[in-house]
Amino acid sequence: MEHAIIRGVWPVLCTPFTRDGAIDRAAMRRIVRFASAADVDGVVFPGFASEVDDLTPAERVELLGIVIDELGGTTPILAGASAPSLAEVIARVEEVQRLGIHQVMIQAPKAIGTDAAAVTAFYAAIAEACPGIEIILQNAPAPRGSDLSPAAVLAVANAVPAIRYVKEETIPSGGPISAILAGAPAHLAGVMGGGGARFVIDEFLRGACGAMPAVEFADIHARMWRALENGAESEARDLYERTLPLLMIQSHARMRLTKRVLMQRGILDNDGVRAKIPAFDTRDLAEIEALMARIADLFTVAPLARAAE
Known about the structure:
Blueprint: E1 8-9, H1 25-37, E2 43-44, H2 57-71, E3 77-80, H3 86-98, E4 103-106, H4 116-129, E5 134-139, H5 150-159, E6 163-168, H6 174-182, E7 190-193, H7 200-205, E8 210-211, H8 218-229, H9 233-253, H10 255-264, H11 282-295
Parallel strand pairs: 1-8, 2-3, 3-4, 4-5, 5-6, 6-7, 7-8
Helix pairs in contact: 1-2, 3-4, 4-5, 5-6, 8-9, 9-10, 9-11
């Protein structure tokens, strides 16, 4: 089967909720349409930034179905399939395969530890149980992830040909990305950056094939990546520096900042989360509004019409 080339900007879509905490299906469609209009290279759902741990299995499948339906095959989709155990991961991979998705991003459970042999056995078991998949090995930082060393990542990737990409998001990510690329086996097609695009220029200059930020600045991030590919580093740095103050807030406010920005951009009507993230106070909101005003000229996707809903 043919797999998409993973390169460029692939935002992780957030999960919108109604004010009473239910999943918001209409808002999910708006988020997907926003990402598509932003000219991204692909999308990721569900991921950590989607609050995947706080979704029920039925919600997860339904929302991924909405993403597939909205995109209609026009934009490739990478599905997150991480879970606390090998059996659960395999079940999630099979779940997305039934939906027609065969590229999956998986982080090894923390319970496995950082021993390369144990992590290799985990990924090898997935590849054997789910033939035809391409795995993106996600290496997230502690406390969420295991902080695998570049040597461990390379040992695992060398041993499991189904691992075609690495999403390296340890902090800082630059050194590990360089080390992984320097020792990459022939079947490893690339290394993606994470970290909310807070290190995206350094990652690009080290040879990263793309970035997987959150979705709220998808149009700016796509423009930034195109500028880097076209040798317009000065333009890319200007975009980076102007968005960085908001991305620094996102580093601790996470999905709530993503949703607050999408509110101000006319995509969502609340910033509700299921994750345990404190609400913004009035000073927080004033700061976000001030920072948003300073970059409003960079937005290329207008608020989406809601008449069809």
